[in-house]
């Protein structure tokens, strides 16, 4: 008997790439059913039809089902993949736009925009977790919904659901490094630590040979958006999101100078994808591939295979700290290398954190801890505590102004 995977947010236009990734994966995964759950039956039907078409052309024969009934979707599920975006792209556009009024970067996981996303998203995710406790209490929740670490900490704090979060950003950087060194990514060994969207590689080796210095010397070719001289001074390789911390003022000016928000670009792309699906309902539109959506092929499907097929595979995942990173509360969700198999997830030991990144890491971790409590309570005092500690917010006066104008409505 195969497994049932339920996809929450299954009507998303990129969902067929999950089935494409399954069909093209190097080994078989024993699925009995993949159930797509969403709010709009007409959208679900179109996505399910295309997804079933992908499977029908493969060597698989499991069924693709769809339903707007959350209970029906969750019952019997061993794995639940959540990819909802609360408020949709319009809410993301708001998160990107309003912080710029205060000369702060607007982004869906960073700064006040990311915090607005957390306040909006955590109650919805806690409702999902509560439903999982009732209908599939043994299932593993694989979370893609942002802000991932705050969402996960809230679920772990308030429910008994087994949850992990994952992101394709660390893998994307590893892919670039592997290409630079002209090796297969599987050959790279690494020491990685941080938080979701705020992490660093501090050692990279191939077959026992340390190649870190070489990568740092040629770091310009990775196109991380961060000053290469600063990276050489840091002596660690940051994820691209660190540009919002190291070059905050520059990024704010860039954002203010854009004619269109990233969310608005994605809305336009989604409209074009929907049109293409109307014209050819059983073919994945080329526009979907062009976005470079590697999260299904490079992270999610390999992770599911490692769990279902009981393999010892290494993944960078988000899990509770529990002493992994020094100076960070145990309950905070950190992003580290792990070994995954059918028995569970085991974090690999993290080396000593360099002093030059430790203060930023700890401040952001403290903020996310406070943001989690605020997202659960929705209380003014908790919201202000989190805003003042947020690394992007310069002082109490601006934090209070943001609360009054954006969060007290």
UniProtKB/TrEMBL annotation:
Glycosyl hydrolase family 4 C-terminal domain mapped to chain residues: 192-393
Cofactor list: NAD(+)
Residues the record lists as binding Mn(2+): 167, 197
Pfam families linked to this entry: Glyco_hydro_4, Glyco_hydro_4C
Protein known as: 6-phospho-beta-glucosidase
SUBUNIT field: Homotetramer.
Signal sequence region: none
Residues the record lists as binding substrate: 92, 146
Residue ranges the record marks as coiled coil: none
Increases basicity of active site Tyr, annotated site positions: 108
Cofactor note: Binds 1 NAD(+) per subunit.
Catalytic residues (positions): 168 (proton donor), 241 (proton acceptor)
Source organism of the structure: Orenia metallireducens
InterPro entries with a match to the protein in the record: Glyco_hydro_4, Glyco_hydro_4_C, Lactate_DH/Glyco_Ohase_4_C, NAD(P)-bd_dom_sf
GO molecular function (one): hydrolase activity, hydrolyzing O-glycosyl compounds
SUPFAM superfamilies in UniProt: LDH C-terminal domain-like, NAD(P)-binding Rossmann-fold domains
Protein keywords: Cobalt, Glycosidase, Hydrolase, Iron, Manganese, Metal-binding, NAD, Nickel
Family designation: Belongs to the glycosyl hydrolase 4 family.
Gene Ontology BP terms: carbohydrate metabolic process
Lineage: Bacteria, Bacillati, Bacillota, Clostridia, Halanaerobiales
Keyword Iron among UniProt keywords: yes
Domain of life (superkingdom): Bacteria
């Amino acid at each position: 008997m195969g497994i049932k995977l339920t996809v929450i947010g299954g009507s998303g236009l990129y969902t067929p790439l999950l089935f494409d990734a399954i069909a093209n994966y190097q080994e078989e995964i024993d699925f009995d059913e993949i159930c797509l759950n969403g709010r709009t039956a007409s959208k679900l039907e179109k996505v399910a039809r295309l997804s079933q078409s992908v499977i029908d052309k493969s060597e698989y024969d499991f069924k693709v089902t769809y339903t707007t009934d959350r209970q029906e979707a969750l019952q019997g599920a061993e794995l639940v993949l959540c990819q909802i975006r609360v408020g949709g792209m319009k809410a993301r556009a708001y998160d990107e736009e309003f912080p710029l009024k205060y000369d702060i970067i607007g982004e869906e996981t960073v700064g006040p925009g990311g915090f607005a996303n957390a306040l909006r998203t955590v109650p919805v995710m806690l409702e999902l977790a509560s439903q999982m406790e009732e209908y599939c209490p043994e299932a593993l929740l694989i979370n893609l919904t942002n802000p991932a670490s705050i969402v996960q900490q809230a679920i772990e704090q308030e429910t008994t659901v087994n949850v992990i979060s994952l992101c394709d950003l660390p893998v994307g950087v590893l892919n670039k490094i592997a290409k630079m060194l002209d090796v297969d990514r599987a050959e790279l060994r690494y020491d990685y630590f941080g938080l979701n969207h705020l992490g660093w590689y501090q050692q990279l080796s191939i077959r026992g040979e340390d190649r870190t210095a070489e990568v740092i010397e040629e770091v310009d070719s990775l196109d991380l958006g961060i000053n290469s001289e600063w990276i050489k001074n840091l002596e660690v390789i940051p994820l691209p999101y660190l540009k919002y911390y190291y070059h905050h003022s520059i990024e704010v000016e860039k954002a203010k100078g854009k004619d269109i928000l990233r969310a608005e670009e994605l809305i336009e792309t989604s409209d074009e994808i929907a049109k293409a699906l109307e014209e050819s309902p059983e073919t994945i539109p080329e526009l979907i591939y062009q976005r470079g959506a590697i999260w299904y092929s490079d992270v999610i499907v390999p992770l599911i295979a490692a769990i279902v097929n009981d393999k010892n595979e290494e993944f960078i995942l988000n899990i509770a700290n529990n002493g992994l990173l020094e100076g960070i509360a145990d309950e905070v969700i950190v992003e580290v290398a792990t070994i995954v198999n059918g028995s569970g997830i085991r974090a690999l030991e993290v080396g000593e954190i360099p002093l030059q990144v430790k203060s930023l890491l700890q401040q952001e971790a403290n903020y996310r801890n406070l943001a989690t409590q605020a997202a659960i309570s929705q209380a003014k005092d908790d919201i202000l505590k989190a805003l003042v500690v947020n690394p992007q917010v310069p002082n109490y006066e601006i934090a209070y102004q943001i609360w009054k104008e954006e969060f007290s409505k």
